[in-house]
Amino acid sequence: MAISDFDLVLFGGTGDLAMRKLLPALYARDRARDLMPSARIICIGRDNKSNEDFLQIVEKNSKPHVSSATLDADVWQRFCGRIQYVSLNAKEPATYQNLVAAMRDDPAISRVFYLATPPTLFSMICDNLSQAGLATANARVVLEKPLGHDLESAKDINKQVGRYFNESQIFRIDHYLGKEAVQNLLALRFGNVLFEPLWRREWISDVQITIAEELGVGGRFDYYDTSGALRDMLQNHLLQLLCIVAMEPPVSNSADSVRDEKLKVLRSLKRFTPSTLAMNVVRGQYRAGHVNGVAVPGYRKEEDANPDSRTETFVAVKAEIDTWRWAGVPFYLRTGKRMADSLAEIVVRFKSVPHSIFAHNSRSTPNCLVIRLQPDEGLHMNLMAKTPGDGMRLKPVELELDFREKFKTPRMEAYERLLLDVLRGQLTLFMRSDELEAAWEWVEPILEHWDQEESDPIPYSAGTWGPAAASALIGRDGLQWREEALPEV
User: Fold this and answer.
1) Same fold for the domain at 6-144 and the one at 177-485?
2) Which of 201, 134, 149, 145 lies closest to 173, judged by CA?
3) How confident is the model at residue 60 (pLDDT cuts 50, 70, 90)?
4) pLDDT in tens, 164-205
5) Positive or negative CA dihedral for 342, 345, 351, 355?
6) In whole angstroms, what is the distance from residue 472 CA to residue 450 CA?
7) CB 160 within 8 A of CB 126
8) Looking at residue 319, what DSSP letter applies?
């Protein structure tokens, strides 16, 4: 779908997200000639500075995040020519006249307001845009996470933003949904006949979804300590991945067809009770340790840290879906910082063969499909095969599809794809308001339980796979996390 002319307004245009991700993504799409020559990018900041001064900041803070393989001096100059800096205080309605003066008054031009700001400003910005006459029918608003702190605040965001923009104009972004491997998961499930007959409780033993980071909180302690792993990662990224794995086939790939099926999954998640919470949820906090051989401090010793913090940096959850397709199949979700490796993957493990006819010295392991999201996107299928030579001995082997090796065409980063969809008005990869609220409804009992508890998170050493309790969580079902179950080479 072609992209029409647009004015893209980046609130938080001087911030880290704009410099590291958004502007480099827009440059990449400019280089690919997806943007009309007249399309413009308006970056909002509070400081009074000239456009030339701002472009120097872009040169210093954003250009280094553009891949050197794609950096072209002429394209970069053309891209910078699209950028206009506007000084504006998001809390002061009068300053929005600066933005009015900068934008083109043409209903044929799409207006996109990207709110890369704290969510406390969402309502105020939308109100001020409306007062300035900018919340028009040709406008779209993009909301960056965190989309609320709990169910009540998420509902409030939906209500306040919904006063000025209808649901078809609101793009709640989750960058994991823009990853190539997530798109390929949809293609794998709904573009092939091979897996659909097996994609159910009769054949699947369990599903594991992991997002692990080697990094700590860095200089973001103030943000992270009020968020934690559950709010920062599980409530959005992990649950969205779960929905794509578990959803029923939609009638089409239209936005509401896909989002209707994801909503059904969220509403089918078995609700926690006080007794199941104690059994099925693990929270941890990293202590000092070694990551890749380098000594790193514990969470409470990080820069500007609270030495008494009880914020979790790791969470593991056993989820269950009460539907005919998935009844009895556990979904294990985990995420953490300062882990043994940086990766994001979905592991679909199939049941063992009902009866093995092969020799007792064959090492039989269940078939397993691994969808790797990062660092290298691809698909891996673990099968059993005969080893060469005399006799019938079986050994696990792996079929691998590396997307970078198979497809030589340039790849889009997640924000590139999502920004293109915003500019096209395509909502499929963005959360609907009822999806957002259903996700918060499911995680809120966990948050309430932790608030009422007196205990601290379980400590785990940096550079490991988290607390031993996470292994016990899955071990009670006679299972192991994938890295614990990998066969010896």
Assistant:
1) no
2) 145
3) very high
4) 999 999 999 998 888 887 888 888 889 889 888 999 999 999
5) negative
6) 20
7) yes
8) E
Determine the average pLDDT of the residues in 107-129.
94
Q: Angle at Cα 423 formed by Cα 418 and Cα 429, nearest 5°?
A: 35
Which one is the CATH code of 6-144: 2.60.40.1120, 3.40.710.10, 3.40.50.720, 3.20.20.450?
A: 3.40.50.720
7: tokens are: 């004015």
| CA distance linking residue 284 with residue 311, whole number of Å | 8
| Angle at CA of residue 437, ends 432 and 441, nearest 5° | 150
Measured between alpha carbons, how far is 442 from 436 in angstroms, rounded to an integer? 10
Instruction: For residues 80 and 23, give the distance between their C-alpha atoms in angstroms, rounded to a whole number.
Output: 10
What single string gives the DSSP state of each residue in 378-422?
EEEEEEEEEPSSSS--EEEEEEEEEHHHH--SPPPPHHHHHHHHH
CB 313 within 8 A of CB 189: no
pTM: 0.92
* For the chain, domain boundaries: 6-144, 177-485
Contact 109, 136 (CB under 8 A): no
Task: Give the chain's largest Cα–Cα span.
Answer: 84
Joined tokens for residue 430: 């963005």
For the annotated binding site for NADP(+), the residues are: 46, 145
For residue range 195-224, list pLDDT tens digits in order: 889 999 999 999 999 999 999 987 788 889
Give the C-alpha separation, 113 to 97, whole Å. 15
Output phi, psi for 91, to 5 deg: -90, -5
Q: Are 383 and 396 in contact (CB under 8 A)?
A: yes
Beta bridge partner(s), residue 370: 347, 380
Phi first, then psi: give them for residue 362, nearest 5 degrees. Answer: -80, 135
How many angstroms separate the CA atoms of 424 and 213, rounded?
A: 32
- Residue 115: enclosing H or E segment and its boundaries? strand 110-115
The CA distance from 329 to 242, in Å, is: 13
Q: What is the CATH number of domain 177-485?
A: 3.30.360.10
How far apart CA 467 and CA 486 sit, in angstroms, is 19
Q: Which amino acids are annotated catalytic?
A: 237
- The amino acid occupying position 154 is A
Q: What letters, b where the CB count within 10 A reaches 16 and e where it falls short, cover 156-165?
A: bbbeebeebb
Dig out the tokens for 397 from the structure: 């082997």
Q: Are 389 and 383 in contact (CB under 8 A)?
A: no
Q: How far apart are CA 169 and CA 173, in angstroms?
A: 13
> Residues comprising the binding site for substrate?
175, 179, 213, 232, 337
What type of residue is 355?
H
